[in-house]
Amino acid sequence: MKIFRNPNFVKLFYAALFSQMGTTIGNMAFAFYLLDHFSHQPSYATLAELMYSLPTILVFFIVGVVADRFDRKKVAENCDWIRAILTVVLFGALFTGSIPFIFFVLFLRSAVTKFFFPAENSLVQGILSKEQYAQAAGLNQMLFSIFMVFGVGIGAAIYKTVGIHGAIIVDFISFVISALLIRSCHIPFAARLPNGKVKWKDLSIKSSVSDFQEGINYIIKNKLLASLIFGFFIFGLFNGAFAILPMFTMKYEMSPDNYEWYASIFAISLGLGLLTGSGIGTLISSKFKPHQLMVIPIFVTGLLIFLLGFTDKVSIFLGIVFIIGTCLGPINIAIGGWMPKIVHPKLMGRVSGWIDPLMMLAQSMTLGIIAVIFPKVIETIDYLYYGIAIIILFVALFYALTLPKLSRALEEKERNLDRKPKTKNTKPNIRTI
């Protein structure tokens, strides 16, 4: 690939790889640690997952501002250094045995992580040509899929071999390597500071809030975009449930003695399904409209989640999970191809800035609910699967009723725009559907 001839991209790609490694391995190892040492309190593992998602809600309104206003290279690098320091603190916190303090450190580390990827992604955009954006996005999706496939397994393997302290040391090394790779990059000033140098005194909470208000107003006025954003919120519920439910299923129902192994196999099944679905979606995307690639797979996913609650065999459970992953692939492709068409480039950053916090809000809500109701209110995990399935089926019905009509409206508006004569010195037309 020509893109790998760009040394800055290669360094940033591997920096993202090691940064994700440092985040994933420690998080999964810590979940296994809590389930081992506090098996009578499964809510601890759920709360640990909550510490990874909750910070998004608290920092989302300044993440985009920091990436746009400050030196992106320094922001990404310093995120790694700060997380490395917090990892050392976490290493020491384990010896204290204070769960609240450990959760607090995990919360801080996760909050810093939220600043890394917007800055790193912005740097990638600044060093590539427009023709290479799709390749970079595909590689990032591949990176995500790899960690979905192997992340839990690597975390479990490291936890089993070197323990929780060894896993945290691996985290520390990963963050340091990532920081050094970013420091070694030679990135043009325009890519690092596209808006010029900005002083702290020039920033305010009011200006940050104003930017996000503009983004949410644009989303609300664009009915098709609002429908897709609503879908991201629902998918956050799915992510929250599947971050912890499969582990609980293996620990308390299907395989108490080998739950780490089967939790790893779950992640591999879902990740391989996602890779398979992405390949299928790429092949058929030109033959189907985006809403068709969304409605049918979402509906099938809802039915399959119902089946997860009924089955008591590990092999069937993992097979269903693989098919669910296959259904998710076309959905990601449809949304990824649709969003740039309906969002004006001028507002893409502010619109994108709402996706992660909405997903994390839904994920945090789901994890919080699970922590409260299981096993105190609901003793059977199956009912949690049924609840998630009902929500997913509701989304499929909602999309089936709304997306075809909104899609036709968008196509009609695009045809009308193409018929209009082009004029010079006109302001960009930020269309809404």
From TrEMBL:
Which Gene Ontology MF annotations are present? transmembrane transporter activity
Where in this chain does the entry annotate a coiled-coil region?
Answer: none
Annotated region Disordered: where? 414-433
Task: Name the InterPro entries for this protein.
Answer: Drug_antiport (IPR004751), MFS (IPR011701), MFS_dom (IPR020846), MFS_trans_sf (IPR036259)
Read off the CDD domains from this record.
MFS_MefA_like
Q: Where is the Major facilitator superfamily (MFS) profile domain?
A: 8-407
Q: Which terms in the GO cellular component ontology are assigned?
A: plasma membrane
NCBIfam families with a match to the protein in the record: 2A0121
Q: What is this protein called?
A: MFS transporter
Source organism (scientific name): Metabacillus litoralis
